């Protein structure tokens, strides 16, 4: 049954650019296929262990960026003083050991998808920088002198409580408002057991996606 659902061909309907959709009231794949067709940022919310990362992989595979890189960063597990360099790279001399400039994950994801797990754990200063990336499609590496353009789709994930502004960590309001324009909500286990089990039966995609080929960055 799962294989048949994954293999089907779907005529994608028009999807409003401002939607909050709940998995428990809709067919899982229909929702994800519609969201995947939009080349915009997406926020995935829900409790732990409901398949938010797998959902992000599926959105990538069903999008026009499927042949390009899928790069991910867990914002909660990355040391706060390393997140900016990890995401945006650095210029030469940005810090003691940085003799030459280094590219970050955003550059690695060029043409493809950057998945930010636990996005609400980003320091507020980094949230502001992420908002600029979403709005202007550009960023400045740490210690860099030049603005870099970016062609990358951001998919972010966080808990449902944080997405509603109730989490313990502060969430930059403008960033939250931007991400919530296209939000997929997963229910708690008691309300969405069928959908959660469905995701647990999907094949986990590889995490070691090849870098985006040259044509992806055009």
UniProtKB/TrEMBL annotation:
It holds the Pfam family Sigma54_activat. Residues 26-196 form the Sigma-54 factor interaction domain. Keywords: ATP-binding, Nucleotide-binding. Gene3D superfamilies: P-loop containing nucleotide triphosphate hydrolases. One of its GO terms (molecular function) is ATP binding. GO terms for biological process: regulation of DNA-templated transcription. Coiled coil: none annotated. InterPro entries: AAA+_ATPase, P-loop_NTPase, Sigma_54_int. This is Anaerobic nitric oxide reductase transcription regulator NorR. The gene is norR_2.
